Amino acid sequence: MSKVKAAIIGSGNIGTDLMYKLERSETIEVSAMIGIDPDSDGLKRAKERGYAAYSNGIDAVKENPDMAEIFFDATSARAHIEHAKVLKELGKFAIDLTPAAIGPFYSPAVPVDETDEKLDNVNMITCGGQATIPLIYAVNEVADVSYAEIVATISSLSAGPGTRANIDEFTITTRRGIEIVGGADKGKAIIILNPAEPPIMMQDTIYCEVKHMDEAKITEAIHNMIEKVQEYVPGYRLKQEPLFDENLVSIFVEVEGAADYFPEYAGNLDIMTAAAAKVGEDFARKLKVGSL
Amino acid sequence: MGKQKRDDIKITEVCLRDGSHAVSHSFTEQQVRDVTRALDDAGMHYIEVSHGDGLGGSTLQYGRSHVDELKLIEAAVDEAKNSKIAVLLLPGIGTIHDLEEAHKLGAKLVRVATHCTEADVSAQHISFARELGMETLGFLMMAHSVPEYKLVEQAKLMESYGAEAVYVTDSAGAMLPEDVRKRVRALKDNLDIEVGFHAHNNLSVAVANTLVAIEEGATRIDGSVRCLGAGAGNTQTEVLLSVLDRMGIDVGIDIYKMMDLAEDIVGPLIQGTQEITKGSLVLGYAGVYSSFLLHAERAAERFGLDPRDILIELGEMKVVGGQEDMILDVGARLAREKELSK
User: Fold this and answer.
1) Across the interface, which of A168, A193, A252 has its CB nearest the CB of B95?
2) I need a labelling partner for A23 at 20 to 30 A (CA). Which of A14, A162, A270, B335 fits?
């Protein structure tokens, strides 16, 4: 089966890591990387790997619309607003790794209602969202979550300038994702940066208050979801069995990255690109069977 | 001997914020009214009111507030005739929207707190607070854990965002007087704004440390009446003010009234003990964030452990403020290891 072509907009860390992940895909082939800085490490690496490398931003897409069917956008929220318009007009599928959130929040581990109108732009929420929302969804399915709270702790070195300049965006967007995608009636998100050396792995704690406590069912749902996420993030794992107190379940996970472009500890960055790659693959499969 | 009037020294009473940890965030509106009224009458400059972990801190991670902190802030504003009501905000926990709410209710000052190496997450909140017209100060937590040059670098960031003072915040109560001297002096030498000091009394040197800070030029000083704060509490306000008085320094607060309110109003609020117990001593000894104490004691009971073992392990892992979830995680792990070694 031939592969579906995909291009990466944004030649920074995220775009570069994504490029390496997509090289392993059986359904997607990278055709191009698009940046704005011809000297960026990402574009150099793309060229070395034999991909078309453009440094004229979204104009490259306008000039060569056939370069790909799927576009990953790893630029910035502001840039994606413009990119989204162009991609929509060209009838392309956009996977948005920025905080722009023009399309709906999306986690590849959470099924979506297929009766929705045609999906052509999805947003990857936040790293903390990708690491926690699937588990909230899983618990909600079996126990009805009234309140979910997550604490994402990441190493200082893995928090980029974008995250640091607008940390409220992380907490607010993740909270909304917990409610919209996770299904909790009410959500709350906390992020903590830890500067310890050697750098700590991303760790996430998820607290769910449930309406129908059933330890066995909840434990099973959690384990099933961990396996599902491990399909695209092999380093995603429970640190210990869930703890139960009355109507509260506490879940502790850590995320070890695949160390494609980022160091292993940066599970927070890895889970974003791994989840985006998985979404791309799922949509590539649908494109092949013509259901999109 | 004549008294030296020191209008430049501003005291912030933190028992209604840091003390929130010590009472597991159970303050009632009446308690806040009584304490605020008495502090205001004594001439306290600023009174901080918030969840212990700042605005938005009412969570499963840190403990839920018995009464919504915004109601408590509103009540404090209502009681304070001259004292200004301050709030605490930790980026990553609370947001600028929480701050806007507190400001609408009458909060006049905000301390924006980050771990001492992560000041750049506060840019958004400091500049927003300045736009609101609030007095805006930076709080560099766990300041014992980095050398002076790092603290200066981070404080300068906060200054560049618009902070009007930066605090050396000894969240773990781990600093010795010379540690305080070096850090306050380095900030005084390198900043154009005021320097503050916030202590915890886990090693019983909070008053001494605060005197050193003042000697080195710190002018924003925190205290908690009866040491009602996390761990063994903070610099005991009524004691500090009495000591300053003996030193001939008058900051304009009535020490007799402070002693009375400490005895009659704040004292009865204390639930456990604010003495230095083995738990709080180990916080200072191991350099662990003071609000972990009660959580560690609860986890120790749950898993059949000594709270000191949990706290020392957390110290070795270099956890930072806000990582209360690690207490349960470490407790469960130590219990498993103990089971295996049997």
Assistant:
1) A168
2) A162
Task: Show the low-confidence residues of chain A (pLDDT under 70).
Answer: 1, 114-117, 290-292
Q: A149–B60: do the CB atoms touch at under 8 Å?
A: yes
Q: Compare CB distances from B121 to A149, A164, A205 and report the shortest one's residue.
A: A164
Let me know if B103 is a catalytic residue. no
CB < 8 Å & 24+ apart, contacts of A88-91 = A88/A120, A88/A121, A90/A61, A90/A62, A90/A65, A91/A120
Which residues from B are below 8 Å from A240, CB to CB? 329, 332-333, 336
Global pTM exceeds 0.90: yes
Which tokens is B34 given?
């009584």
pLDDT in tens, B15-65: 999 999 999 999 999 999 999 999 999 999 999 999 999 999 999 999 999
pLDDT at A118: 75
Q: Do B93 and A190 touch (CB under 8 A)?
A: yes
Q: Which residue of B has its CA nearest to A150?
A: B61
A191 and B59 within 8 Å at the Cβ level: the answer is no
- What is the DSSP pairing of strand A93-96 with strand A70-73? parallel
**Chain A contact set for B328 (CB, 8 A):** 243, 250, 252
The interface pTM score, or ipTM, of the predicted complex is 0.96
**Nearest Cα to B15, choosing from B245, B267, B214, B212?**
B267
Q: CA B183 to CA A28: how far, in whole Å? A: 55
How far is the C-alpha of B23 from the C-alpha of A85, rounded, in Å?
53
Closest CB to A192: pick one of B123, B323, B336. B323
Q: Which two tokens stand for residue A227?
A: 């396996």
Q: Give the pLDDT confidence of B143-189 residue by residue, as tens digits.
A: 999 999 999 999 999 999 999 999 999 999 999 999 999 999 999 99
Contact between B204 and B231 under an 8 Å Cβ cutoff? The reply is: no
Chain B interface includes A191 (CB < 8 A): yes
Q: How far apart are CA A4 and CA A284, in angstroms?
A: 6
Structure tokens at B289: 């964030």
* Phi-psi domain of A191 (left: phi exceeds 0; alpha: psi -120 through 50; beta: other): beta
What's the burial of B82, exposed, middle or buried (CB within 10 Å: 0-12/13-18/19+)?
A: exposed
CB A98 within 8 A of CB A76: yes
